[in-house]
Amino acid sequence: MDAIIKALKDTKLLDLPGRDSRQILSSNDGASLTVRHVTIPTSGEKREFHFHADSNEYIHVLSGIGAFTTEKGSKPVSAGDTIFVPKGLKHFTANESEKDLVLLCIFETADLVAHG
């Protein structure tokens, strides 16, 4: 197998509320995990709690300021922060600033299908 290079503009745009979520890599590319680039605009609607039953999630904040929320409360996040989200943990990430919040999200499955 050869290396894969994708331009962000050529990736699949997912239908997720309040954000521009683009699937960069998945099983369709021969990858053993899922990688997404997520932009949450200042006007983005707040996402409801959700969880991933089939995978841990790793969120790296590329730019912006936001809040990572679980049922136990919220914590501020900003560029350079990385969040480990164990599978099954209810959570959401929201923009808390005047600029876009940009995230790189990695899941330990090549076919992220269900959100709870």
Overview of this structure, please?
The chain is an all-beta fold and 116 residues long. 0% of the residues lie in helices and 44% in strands. The protein has no helices and 9 strands. It has strands spanning 12-14, 20-25, 34-40, 57-63, 65-70, 73-78, 82-85, 91-95, 101-107. The strands form 2 sheets. A 6-stranded antiparallel beta sheet has the order 1-2-3-9-4-7, with no helix packed on it. A 3-stranded antiparallel beta sheet has the order 6-5-8, with no helix packed on it.
Keywords:
mainly beta, globular, 0% helix
Strand content: 35-45%
Give helix % range. under 10%
Please report the distance between the alpha carbons of the first and last residues. 34 Å
Average pLDDT for all residues: 92
Rg (CA only): 14 Å
Shape: globular
Identify low-pLDDT runs.
none
Protein structure class: mainly beta
